[in-house]
Design a protein that fits this description.
With 221 residues, the chain is of the alpha+beta class. It has two domains: 155 residues; 61 residues, Arc Repressor Mutant, subunit A. The chain contains seven helices and eight strands; from the N terminus they run E-H-E-E-H-E-E-H-E-E-H-E-H-H-H. A four-stranded antiparallel sheet has the order 6-7-1-8, with helices on one face. Strands 2-3-5-4 form a four-stranded antiparallel sheet, with helices on both faces. The longest helix is centred in the C-terminal third of the chain and has 20 residues. The relative contact order is 0.19.
Length: 221
């Protein structure tokens, strides 16, 4: 398998979806670990963000929630920056016409949008895929994002114990970790975590228990 690094200059992103969030990007000093997963027709995004000086987080959340397709948004403090949690209806968002090609190529095999990093001037996407899909993935990324290939490297999925988890267990564990559920003191409660995922607290607790047990079994044996 391969890990593809793709560079997208901000000034090449000219579609309506980006324009909706341009004001937000102008306030960001840097962003890291941009990941997402789907819950029904909603997409949940998690990204660590450091804002520029004199930015009011409460006003940012309020403005995000005024966007029609954004259903929920939270900024969770983490050291000197924040973790942004956002949930939006993907079918109501003003995506470019060819954006659905990204989802089509994911149906052809293993294609994972691992993470993203960004500043106010450029975005980097990291995509993991099977060797035979590399050309197709690069072509789709160029078509949708107007970007350019930065690098390709080998990727060994067997190195990660996370691959032993079910999709729900991985999503729950990822959101719990990113949002500070495991921090001391906790940044979010079990009930808040359940609300983000649209699940009951007992179900979330069970997903976390099983996910942690599987990871311990892989690491400790």
């Amino acid at each position: 398998m391969k890990r593809i690094k793709f560079k997208i200059p901000i000034d090449k992103i000219n579609y309506e979806f980006y324009n909706t969030f341009k004001w937000f990007m102008d306030l960001v000093e840097w962003g890291y670990g941009d990941t997402y997963f789907f819950i029904g027709s909603d997409v949940v995004k998690l990204v660590e963000i450091k804002f520029k000086e004199n930015v009011n987080p409460e006003k940012i959340v309020k403005k995000l929630l005024e966007i029609p397709h954004v259903k929920d948004a939270k900024l969770i403090p983490k050291n000197d920056h924040y973790v942004l949690y956002a949930r939006a209806n993907i079918f109501e968002a003003p995506l470019p016409k060819n954006a659905l090609e990204i989802f089509d190529i994911q149906k052809k095999g293993m294609v994972i949008f691992e993470k993203g990093t960004f500043t106010s001037s450029e975005v980097y996407l990291y995509v993991i895929c099977e060797d035979e899909l590399v050309r197709n993935v690069i072509a789709v990324l160029k078509k949708v994002y107007n970007g350019e290939l930065a690098s390709i490297e080998e990727y060994s999925p067997e190195d990660s114990p996370l691959l032993k988890l079910t999709r729900k267990q991985l999503e729950t564990l990822l959101l719990a970790y990113k949002s500070g559920y495991f921090d001391n003191p906790r940044r979010v409660t079990l009930r808040e975590l359940a609300q983000m995922l649209g699940l009951s607290p007992s179900t979330v607790k069970e997903h976390l228990r099983k996910a942690q047990r599987k990871i311990f079994e892989e690491l400790i044996g």
